[in-house]
Specification:
The protein has 26 helices and 23 strands. By secondary structure, it is α+β, with helices and mostly antiparallel strands.
Amino acid sequence: MNKEINNIVLRRKNKVFLLTDKKENNKKTAKEFKEKFAAVTAFVKNLEAYGYTASADMFNTMLGLDMDTIKRNYKSVISLIKEQTGADETYNVMYPNFPQQVIEMDDADLFYNAIVHYFANGEIIPEYEKDDRFPLFLRDKKLKVIELATENDIKDIFNNIVGSKTSISTQDKEDISAILNYYYEDENKDIRDLLLTNTITHKEVGAFVCAELVNREGKDILNHMSLLSNLGCIKTYTDILRLATALSCGDISLAENTKFKLKKYERKLIMNLLISINSLKDEDLYAYKNKWIRLCEVIHPSDYKNSFYTNSKVVKKLRELGYSDYKPKTFNSLFTFYMQSKDIANAVNLLKTRPTMFARNLDFVLRVADKEKYTDYVIDEFYSIASSVASPVLIQLIDFYNQKLNQSKFNYNVYMPKGNTLKPWVADNKQPNLDKALYYNIIAICDIALANIYSNRPALGKVYIDKEFKNFAIPSSQRSASSGANVLTRYSHMPILEDTNIIRSFIWWTNNDNDRSSQIDVDLSAGIYDNDWKLIDQISYTHLKGTTKNCVHSGDIINGGPADGNGVTECIDIDINEVCKNKGRYIVFQIFNFSKIPFSKMSNCRFGWMERNDQTSGKIFEPLTVKNLYEINSSSTACIPVIFDCEEKKYIWLDINGNYNNQQFLNNLEANVGTTTLLCSAMVDKCKSNLYDIVLKNVLANKDSILVANRNMADIIFSNDTTKPVIKEVYVDSEGNEVIKEVERNDVDIITTNNLDYFMSNII
């Protein structure tokens, strides 16, 4: 099985494809079976060191294979799991006996070592003998159960991703490409068996999938047109612009400019699509006028002389764009005119033609309109079309008004601009507040609309929802989300294990190549803040030892080494109990690229953290203790991945870039205390819908779905506990006695928080 495909199903579903032996007759003697049993048992035992175990089905399937195939499967599965946990790399820190070595060293020695390292351009690292460490204190840890994958799992993953109702991440796009490659490379597979019609609803997703298909189908224009027609993604001229952008590897959201690069057959395809759309709306062209001008320069229809291309209406329109001062009355211009004139009735009538735009502008209209005259009218009109609003936007509207009802003491709003590069910014909430009763009314309308939408979806049957899902935020926009096995949605929070005393964060990276000019210096820092978000301590390259006991940095390394080498690591230990004793509460981890190279341009860069119950036992890196690990692929030189709340013993997932308010985010912790405080405090207090509530809304809205309290009775289980439910079966033994036996159920689906594709496609 393709390794990429195995990586996908393991990451998303905790499943793997096993290699099978080629022997038709696999009968074994008792001795041989005993040897295989021991080998498979050892295989499963080794999995536990990485936090995994094998299901009973996987165990029994392995027993049916020959010894050579068992060994090959072991290498394959272990290799995949090492990549998931980060154990596939070597983690070399400056001080090999970290953290105790740093804690006990004189500041003068630490300073001298740093100076020598800096003047040597990062090529000299102090040499110390590595001490033997006491073995890791083992603790009870819930193991992830690996199941056997099937071809249907691949199809489910693909169609869930492409059926997403929100924008998708870079990881999602890579998985789509890998699955398409898997189908195109196998002559026995038909791509049309993978592509379900009417599954793609999000414009950006549709453009990306269409571009991927065009890249694989080659120069067969007719086949392109047939595939795209079946998908139903290309309906407007803006859809064609998105496709051209996707083919040029640009920003499909159209928030950023794109340098169009199209092959000849791609240009011809674009022309065919333009002509195939019957209704030409000036608004579609003039909304992105400059982008169409640049695209037209690349397409240059004049190449197709004496053809119907040059005589088409759309080509003439495209030619006029560059020199015409004509400004058509667009939806936005009309809406702006009505609002400036305070013509609320016409503004509302216009918005009703585009229900989602009505939802996005509802608060604006209510604030501008005369409260006595128009408030009830606006609300009634919105209620009449609310069920036609896209469900993700309804959820966003609920969150918006819940935020107003639960305004934090800091009273700031966080804004996440559209685009591939997430540059959040914070502003004072200066908007006048409306009557709270109105907020409750709008939330109720949105809930009713969601119920109407969800009632028309396929029934889920008997549903069990783990209360843990209340901690996980709903994915609303994944464009800039990082890649990894356990990447959460922004604003999600998870409890720290009860016996955790030490949070050990780490950053690992390499240079881009062997050229010394490409040397990359990445810095890991941690700021400790009190309950009022005042900085009380820091651990960084300028302060290896914090004033808080047992809070320590492993040493600043400025050279990542060869791209194909072992790489280098920086770690920071945080003693949770000591932080609380020192009246600290929040730990904000920040990552800076001192070399000012965007993380997206780096060959290797990953961040993660471990939950340890003892600071001195175990190796510096223990895969069993890794809580999270992800690739840093943001288009910035600074990022804030996570915040730890030591008081409530939980972590809050941020995954944001360090650029906001149109300011240059300077590459050290000290220069960004104010802006970091502002951003993090606002994001911690952000109201966000959670997965538990949204699943519950789906269940309550559908008459054929029911919520059950016992997971053993469920048809579908939403839980991170992947243990299969059991049922009790009664049978009569040979002596006529009734025997009760617990049997695992194989007819139940278990959905974890890793299955974001499922939620984005079927639940939101």
